[in-house]
Specification:
Distance between the termini of chain B: 34 Å
Number of helices of chain A: 12
Order of helices and strands of chain B: EEEHEEHEHHHHHEHEHEEHHH
CATH superfamily of the domain at 38-59 and 82-279 in chain B: P-loop containing nucleotide triphosphate hydrolases
Largest sheet of chain B: 6 strands, mixed
CATH topology of chain A: MetI-like fold
Helix content of chain A: over 70%
Strand content of chain A: under 5%
Strand order of the largest sheet of chain B: 6-7-8-3-9-10
CATH topology of the domain at 38-59 and 82-279 in chain B: Rossmann fold
CATH superfamily of chain A: MetI-like
CATH class of chain A: Mainly Alpha
Order of helices and strands of chain A: HHHHHHHHHHHH
Number of domains of chain A: 1
Strand content of chain B: 15-25%
Number of helices of chain B: 12
Radius of gyration of chain A: 24 Å
Structural class of chain A: mainly alpha
Distance between the termini of chain A: 44 Å
Shape of chain B: globular
Largest interface: A-B, 43 and 50 residues
Radius of gyration of chain B: 20 Å
Number of strands of chain A: 0
Oligomer: heterodimer
CATH architecture of chain A: Orthogonal Bundle
Largest sheet of chain A: none
Number of strands of chain B: 10
């Protein structure tokens, strides 16, 4: 041995406090490396910057809006852009800029919460079904099959009917509607990964199933999941808008981009900004999320090299 | 050559039968012993059950496979022990080196992290600089150039030969009593193959904790008879899920007795032995296995009785009544 056993054990024993810090430093700090690679990715930087901008607006914006986003002023309804109202007003005379800024945290926050909840639920159940197999797999997948047989909208209506319309119910309904697709997909990915020789080797080294899933299976599928989740972020923003339109989600007079689209629909021919502004916000958020997803897929793949975007 | 000691054998396989869900009888009554420090090579054509044997020893067969017989690994009955003991078997008592080094490493984990992980699973040592330094030292010992930099690289940045050495390091890091090497050199150049396996053997032998501890044994699964001849103490020749000949490597290669072993040796290119003679025919289907000697359909010495009755047992290290003179 170049480094004797006793020496290592002695070192580990005498400096236990130093170990966690060293652990981060020693293997080259993978997290920072991923961030560095993301910052070296051209479209990734654009997407990240756009999402950070939307997130900043969502967090800080509501405190800086020039008007109360819910304040009705019929006398100033459907005003064109002016110095007082930079983006004009809607059919109730509410300031469009204030409503757009105020709607950011509901639209983005809800979408992020739904995608996060869907990922958490489906990673747990997808990995469990794929790795445990047998009765566990059969039980989880039959429940998923039953859910996939039910139309999402009907289930959402039933949930809202039982629990009452609110943002929380909306997140729950969308999570339940989306998760089964993800569970099925993740299970398939896990079934493929669990047969890889490196998973077999990890098991032979004595790694317990949870460690095998955590250290080998999830990192291997993370790139594909990142693309899927960011693509879905866009469709969830639209789904939130759709359900809000049906009165199942964000309740009036609260501002939300999807609900604003619906509000602007009636007067679109004469006042297109009422739909264009929230529509452009949704488009920008979805675009940035997709750019980030593509970049994440690249940087989570160790074989990716800087400057190779779009050449595959 | 080390003779297998019945009492102190690291691995004892008794009458092991494995039948897969489709009815394929992959193993049909295997009896093997591996003594401490011994290298036993299991050779045979593709599909003869070599890899199933390695998987069965580690209890890693699919749940749908039916297993009969017993596998004793360092005193633990692999198929009767509780899950806790099974975990101890993996990594601490037995290690595994697989065929393709590229696929044996998780592509999104650094090479050094694989060795660290293998070590941490069986020691109370915390992940930290000390363990990382130890891993780098281990790679240096295995003659990996620039180990500090190399340990931080991903598997695709390493060559096959270097990766196989790292795989060996990870498999032997907890000093297993038995190392299973399943075609460890299949994807390497011939010039590297012997080097890698001899390095592996040397590593197992130098790892012993002291004079009182026996060196680790190796079960080498290979279809390369030449490699087996160079590195193994003993050789077991498998055909259609059964061992047909077993003995000292030099004796089996130098004076093969079973007609199948003779055919394998004749098919092996050797200096001064003329052109290799290819072995005609194919392995018989094992769903179910044919009665009698499974090799009888391809055998030049076959007699009418060979294709009937139960498969011939090993007598004096060879499973052929025609050769041993036991045939009526």
């Amino acid at each position: 041995m170049a480094v004797s056993e006793s020496a290592i054990e002695a070192t580990a024993g005498t400096a236990p406090a130093a170990a966690p810090a060293a652990a981060l430093a020693a293997p080259g700090a993978r997290r920072f490396r991923t961030l560095r690679r993301l910052l070296a990715h051209r479209s990734g930087v654009l997407g990240l910057a756009g999402l950070l901008l939307v997130a900043f607006v969502a967090l800080v914006g509501p405190h800086l809006t020039p008007y109360d986003p819910t304040e009705v002023n019929i006398l100033e309804k459907l005003q064109p852009p002016s110095a007082a109202h930079p983006l004009g007003t809607d059919y109730l005379g509410r300031d469009l800029l204030s409503r757009t800024v105020d709607g950011a945290h509901r639209s983005l926050g809800t979408a992020v919460a739904v995608v996060g909840a869907v990922l958490a639920v489906s990673i747990v159940f997808g990995c469990l079904a794929g790795f445990a197999g047998g009765a566990v797999d059969a039980t989880i997948m039959r429940v998923v099959d039953v859910k996939l047989g039910l139309p999402g909208l009907v289930l959402s209506l039933a949930l809202v009917g039982t629990l009452g319309p609110s943002l929380g119910t909306l997140i729950l309904a969308l999570t339940i509607a989306q998760a089964p697709w993800y569970i099925r997909l993740i299970r398939t990915m896990v079934l493929r990964e669990r047969e890889r020789p490196y998973v077999l080797v990890a098991r032979v080294h004595g790694a317990p199933p949870v460690a095998v899933v955590w250290r080998h299976v999830i990192p291997a599928v993370a790139g594909q999941l990142a693309v899927l989740a960011t693509l879905d972020l866009g469709s969830v923003v639209l789904a939130v808008a759709g359900l809000s339109f049906l009165g199942l989600g964000v309740q009036p007079p609260a501002a939300e981009w999807g609900a604003m689209l619906n509000d602007g629909r009636i007067t679109f021919a004469l006042h297109p900004l009422l739909m264009v502004v929230p529509g452009a916000c949704i488009f920008f958020t979805v675009l940035c999320a997709n750019l980030c997803g593509d970049a994440l897929r690249d940087v989570l793949d160790p074989t990716w090299q800087r400057g190779r975007e779009g050449r595959r | 050559m080390r003779a297998p000691a019945a009492g102190g054998a690291v691995l004892t396989v008794r009458d092991l039968h494995v039948t897969y869900a489709g009815g394929v009888q992959a193993l049909r009554g295997i009896d093997l012993q591996v003594a401490p420090g011994e290298t036993l090579a299991v050779v045979g054509e593709s599909g003869c059950g070599k890899s199933t044997l390695a998987t069965a020893v580690l209890r890693l067969l699919p749940a749908s496979a039916a297993v009969r017989g017993s596998v004793d690994l360092a005193g633990i009955d692999v198929y009767a022990c509780p899950p806790g003991a099974a975990k101890r078997i993996r990594g601490q008592i037995a290690g595994l080196v697989v065929q393709d080094p590229m696929s044996a490493f998780n592509p999104v984990m650094r090479v050094g992290e694989h060795v660290v992980e293998a070590r941490r699973l069986h020691s109370r040592q915390a992940a930290g600089q000390a363990l990382w330094d130890w891993t780098v030292g281990l790679l240096r010992e295995l003659r990996i150039p620039e180990p500090e930099r190399r340990a931080r690289q991903y598997p695709h940045e390493w060559s096959g030969g270097m990766l196989q050495r790292a795989a060996i390091a990870a498999a032997s890091v907890n000093r297993p009593r038995l190392l299973l090497a399943d075609e460890p050199t299949a994807s390497l150049d011939a010039s590297l193959a012997v080097d890698v396996v001899l390095g592996l053997r040397e590593r197992l032998h130098t790892q012993a904790r002291g004079a009182d501890e026996a060196p680790a044994a190796m079960l080498l699964i290979t279809h390369q008879l030449g490699l087996a001849a160079q590195v193994a103490d003993r050789l077991a020749v498998m055909y259609a899920g059964r061992v047909v000949e077993v003995g000292a490597a030099a004796a089996v290669i130098g004076r093969p007795r079973h007609p199948y072993t003779r055919a394998l040796v004749a098919a092996m290119p050797r200096p001064g032995a003329g052109l290799p003679e290819p072995l005609e025919g194919e392995l018989p289907p094992l769903t179910p296995a044919p009665p009698g000697c499974a090799f009888s359909a391809r055998c030049r010495l076959a007699q009418a009785a060979c294709a009937a009755g139960p498969p011939p047992p090993l007598v004096d290290g060879v499973a052929c009544p025609v050769v041993t003179g036991a045939a009526a």
